[in-house]
């Protein structure tokens, strides 16, 4: 039996990985959010699987269509960070015994809606009975190895950027959990950010095709955690000079004694890409992707992530969403 808070998600992964025979010349190390194998002619098969469990992953009020769609989006977001177009999806469903036919139809329609949105298809899967709704999604694609965007290739001096503003999903989760006084417009926008996330696939494909960036990671576990993962993989540090928070969220936070830094860096449920690139490519990239927000630069202080605002410095804590943990 697992003792509460003793085994985190990443600790469990480490235990399992360390018990496996290692594949020689693996294109990506264990611990990356996707896996890859070489298939010849300079190409890689890139794969990703992710599991959604209703009890831990579905907020109150989220319907089956939104739930199954989000399960697919979360997997595609990791392929987006690599610049890989998903070619197909495998879906495994664990369903409680007494679910209705309408419920199952909603699940199926949500999966198809996400597949259509990102120009891919479901090609197979499995079903089984379970005590709780469980959706496991596997996605795969093929890319040229030289075009795969890695997370271990950030360079000192690179600009750090994100593909959009943060904070709406974090606020949305707070609204769902607590009865907060908030305008109808902002409430709807924040909850929609939780229930209807979007993967930055077109941006990731643009980065890869045009060789615009040095490294990338998706931010579904939170901006702070993503920065630490990039830092560890690339053996670098970061100085962050801008908080990439949604303007309406920031205004609401200030008026209601919420910490904008907490909402932007530690909220999770975000699906923006966190990227680094050489400064000389910034203007070219910004013309292609208007939503890009520069937030800082890469430093040589490995493992150190500093927020500098108005000549004041503070450490960014290594926190993010993690199963089997209160580290949220």
List keywords for this structure.
11 helices, 2 domains, five-stranded mixed sheet, 328 residues, disordered C terminus, 60s Ribosomal Protein L30, Chain: A, globular
SSE topology:
Elements: H1 9-18, E1 35-40, E2 43-53, H2 54-57, H3 64-82, E3 88-95, H4 101-117, E4 122-129, E5 134-144, E6 159-162, H5 168-177, H6 184-195, H7 201-209, E7 215-218, H8 223-234, E8 237-240, H9 247-255, H10 260-266, E9 273-277, H11 282-288, E10 293-299, E11 305-309, E12 312-315
Parallel strand pairs: 3-4, 8-11
Antiparallel strand pairs: 1-2, 2-5, 3-5, 6-9, 6-10, 7-9, 8-10, 11-12
Helix pairs in contact: 3-4, 3-7, 5-6
| CATH architecture descriptor of the largest domain | Alpha-Beta Complex
How many E-type strands?
12
For the biggest β-sheet, the strand order reads 7-9-6-10-8-11-12
Portion of residues within helices: 25-40%
Report mean pLDDT, rounded to a whole number. Answer: 94
Unreliable segments of 5+ consecutive residues:
322-328
**Count of helices?**
11
Characterize the structure shown:
Helix 3 runs parallel beside helix 4, helix 3 (64-82) runs parallel beside helix 7 (201-209) and helix 5 (168-177) packs across helix 6. A seven-stranded mixed beta sheet has the order 7-9-6-10-8-11-12, sandwiched between helices. A five-stranded mixed beta sheet has the order 1-2-5-3-4. A hairpin with a 2-residue loop joins strand 1 and strand 2 (43-53). The protein folds into two domains: 9-147, 60s Ribosomal Protein L30, Chain: A; 159-315, Phosphoribosyl-aminoimidazole Synthetase, Chain A, domain 2 (Alpha-Beta Complex). It is built from eleven helices and twelve strands. The protein is 35% helix and 23% strand. It has 328 residues and is an alpha+beta fold.
């Amino acid at each position: 039996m697992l003792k509460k808070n003793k085994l985190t998600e990443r600790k469990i992964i480490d235990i399992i990985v360390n018990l496996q025979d290692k594949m020689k010349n693996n294109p990506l190390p264990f611990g990356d959010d996707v896996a890859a194998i070489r298939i010849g002619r300079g190409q890689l098969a890139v794969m990703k699987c992710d599991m959604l469990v209703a009890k831990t992953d579905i907020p109150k009020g989220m319907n089956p269509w939104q739930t199954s769609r989000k399960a697919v989006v979360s997997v595609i977001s990791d392929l987006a960070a690599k610049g890989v177009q998903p070619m197909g999806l495998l879906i495994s469903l664990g369903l409680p015994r007494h679910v209705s036919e309408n419920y199952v139809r909603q699940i199926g329609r949500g999966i198809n809606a996400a597949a259509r949105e990102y120009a891919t298809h479901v090609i197979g899967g499995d079903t089984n009975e379970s005590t709780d709704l469980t959706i496991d999604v596997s996605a795969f694609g093929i890319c040229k190895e030289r075009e795969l965007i890695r997370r271990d290739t950030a360079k000192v001096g690179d600009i750090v950027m994100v593909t959009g503003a943060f904070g709406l999903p974090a606020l949305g989760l707070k609204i769902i959990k607590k009865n907060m006084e908030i305008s109808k417009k902002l409430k709807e926008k924040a909850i929609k950010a939780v229930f209807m996330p979007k993967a930055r696939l077109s941006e990731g494909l643009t980065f890869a095709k045009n060789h615009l960036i040095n490294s990338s990671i998706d931010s579904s576990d939170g901006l702070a955690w993503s920065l630490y993962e990039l830092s560890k993989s690339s053996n670098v540090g970061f100085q962050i000079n801008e908080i990439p928070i949604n303007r309406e969220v920031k205004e609401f936070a200030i008026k209601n004694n919420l910490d904008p830094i907490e909402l932007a860096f530690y909220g999770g449920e975000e699906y923006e890409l966190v990227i680094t690139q050489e400064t000389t490519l910034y203007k070219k990239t910004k013309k292609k992707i208007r939503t890009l927000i520069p937030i800082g630069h890469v430093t040589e202080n490995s493992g150190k992530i500093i927020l500098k605002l108005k000549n004041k410095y503070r450490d960014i804590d290594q926190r993010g969403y993690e199963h089997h943990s209160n580290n949220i």
